[in-house]
Amino acid sequence: MANRLSDRISPKNWRAAPAPGSYITPGGMKRFAIIKGQDHTRWTDFYHAILTIPWALFIPVLGLFFVLLNSVFALIYMLDPGGIAYARPGNFWDAFIFSVQTIASINYSVMVPKSHYANVVVVVEAFSGIINLALITGVLFSRFSRPSARILFSQAAVITNFDGVPTLMFRAANQRGNQILGANVSLTYAWQHTTQEGLMMRRFRELPLVRAHSPLFALSWTVMHRVDETSPLYGQTTESLKACQGELIVLLSGTDETLADMVFARHSYQPDRILWNHRLVDILSRLPDGRRMVDLTKFHDTVSDETA
């Protein structure tokens, strides 16, 4: 009978931290190493930081920046107590509201600048408002226009016989209703190696695939690597892979036909996610009218070779 990976591996373990030597979490997220001596301040690269922070943080940051900027100009206006007509002298709130009306190009209602000092500050603030609007518009456009791939990878990779040869298999699915043109996938085996001199280093070896290119990636793609005598996985076990901190790194790229831009996806399979003597449950079928159907409810399901 088919079994779900989630029935044998709890969600807690599925979301657990990756192995010490891994570069990517099982879900495809980057895993950052601790680098001694590096500047860890996120905002030293402000543009990159503002593009990569989540939306839940991005919007509050913009709001905080808007409040702080108007607060600064409000304090500047307060240096001239009578510079704003109909504003209460020394009242921060009146000066703040006047600053918001100025920087946002809102027509003045009651409060207007009446001194030369206030008019000069209004000119400076109006110019800064134009610059800020252009910068924020550019950042928003950059965040919205960044291409992304919605690629689903099977939670487990399996090793089973295919044409009489032990073959590593996993699959990927395009979750969008379009096609990825000229899709390419690469599979790299990474492991921890210790030299004769005791130097530890991370080694990488790209694994040859039965098919590494797909002209049109629309539904599902089963990626296969033959585990023969030339494969570094030949003779390996779960325990031996754990001992050398081995993992399989998947990189998939192609051109999204809708966005007309390159999209990328990555995934990682650690030893616990590689199932020996298992195979993937078939998810492709054909409807009576001739159309093909992909059953993603069985996407992560595997079955033992003994019960297949």
Automatic annotation (TrEMBL):
It is a multi-pass membrane protein. The keyword Membrane applies. GO terms for molecular function: inward rectifier potassium channel activity. InterPro entries: Ig_E-set, IRK_C, K_chnl_dom, K_chnl_inward-rec_Kir, K_chnl_inward-rec_Kir_cyto. One of its GO terms (cellular component) is monoatomic ion channel complex. Residues 151-304 form the Inward rectifier potassium channel C-terminal domain. The keyword Transmembrane helix applies. Keywords: Ion channel, Ion transport, Membrane, Potassium, Potassium transport, Transmembrane, Transmembrane helix, Transport, Voltage-gated channel. It is found in: Membrane. The chain crosses the membrane at residues 55-79, 91-111, 117-141. It comes from the Bacteria. Residues 72-144 form the Potassium channel domain. One of its GO terms (biological process) is regulation of monoatomic ion transmembrane transport. This is Inward rectifier potassium channel. It comes from Rhizomicrobium palustre.
